[in-house]
Prior knowledge:
552 residues; mainly alpha; MetI-like fold; 2 domains; two-stranded parallel sheet
Amino acid sequence: MVDENTQVHAPARRAAMGVWSTGAVLIALIVLAPLASILWIAFHPTENIWPHLMATVLPRYLATTLTLMLGVAVLTAAAGTGAAWLVTMYRFPGRGWLSHALLFPLAIPAYVGAYALVDFLDYAGPLQTALRSGFGWASARDYWFPQTRSLWAAVLVLSAALYPYVYLLARAAFREQPGCTYHVARALGVGPWGLFLRVGLPMARPAIAAGVALALMETVADYGTVYHFGVQTLTTGIFSTWLNGSNAGGAAQIAGVVLVLIFLLVMLERIGRRNARFHAMNRSVRPIEPAALGGARGWLAFAACMVPFGIGFVLPVMVMAGNSLAAPEGWLAPGLGAALVNTLVVAGAASLATVGAALFLVYGVRMAGRGIARVVLPVTLLGYAAPGAVLALGLLIPLAALDHRLADAIEALTGHDPGLLITGTAFALGLAYLVRFFGIAQGALDAAFGRVSPSLPMAARSLGRTAGGALSSVYLPLMRGSVATALLVVFVDCVKELPATLLLRPFNYNTLSTRVFELASLERLSEAAPAALLVMAVGLAAVALLARANRD
């Protein structure tokens, strides 16, 4: 009897699995389509300017990008690893709240930090004004001050905004190390520096490398910061070649170089995560017991942690809040309300679509079996690694062609020209957000599915539940927290995203990020401050949730 029922239901089950697996493959194809489009345009340009690029601007773009990456790698590794070591190994004044506050710069877009630093350090800013007043200097000829719009300033701002990636992973690695290792090292006469260099750092090195790789991906993808500082990188080259030079093929070829860099960084991050293995501590293994730092050494540790936190969080918040208080009418300025509504609508819709698609794909892959999982799941992470400018280029050109054909077809059938239905609306922008941040949602949900005991959905299926029924009645109730976290994190990243928004937004369509960029580029920081504060407030919600999840 059981065999007959099994035979009866087998075709239906195979059909259901086919729907889930087919849907998963289609979602994966949508995520990968912009990257495939970039490669096609790069290898089939209307006008091949690759030799010209190689002979003129490309070496400079590449050299500047690599220099920027090197500076950010050094500073993020030093700040993130150093702060993680101090808050894990020692007790000092302010350690409790600093251990969470060191994550707060994740809430600040790097381009907002750039505007704040320039406003603070420029000739008319509060620092130089105070120096001239204090020392009696009359003009800039009376003293030397470093150039604020420069490569070093871009390195500083990006490092202050991105060191939390290293801090988060390094701190987790240090906390998972067994305390007995350090007790043995101290018994053998190893001092504090020796403990760090010879014990802690070697075991945490894979996690640190993974954090640095993530920071460098964001560095390569950045546009607003380097544009404000006048630094010409590969990403600014894409904008310049495409928009100013009107050559999409050349921009795609530069984007191809960016993708090669990103691929190398993804490999570095994957190798770091693969090697970041720590034996789980059992009850007989004592965790690390932080040592007390009193007096001057304790306050020195506090100051060392405050430096990256101050530059990455305190300075942008203070500058933007000061500008907002100086011109409170900015909160009532025309366009701010529309930008806020646009941001909430497009980011909200994109985050729902992204998490929904990721949920369907991950569940579909699990239903289809391990064969498809080996292919689909890894490749869909490439969208997150690709910069927003690259994705925008890969989306806009094919979507524009499709848009014109669709409009012509509708006009031929109805006699009415509907206009651009895809690129003329926020649809293309939402699609770019979905592709860009799909990897975040997929990673969070894949981990959540893995934490659900397989016996629970199996029991539901044995009681007659369909695959969709098992998902809604078993998985989703147990994964509510992970789904909510994925929604929030994707929403915040959509709010902060600048390059893709600049390139794909419809005409006269502003979001908070583009409003901040446009007004700050015109040196109207007091008008940009309210929008910047709103972006930071949204980011803080996600960071607070992250800090809560990583509390001691």
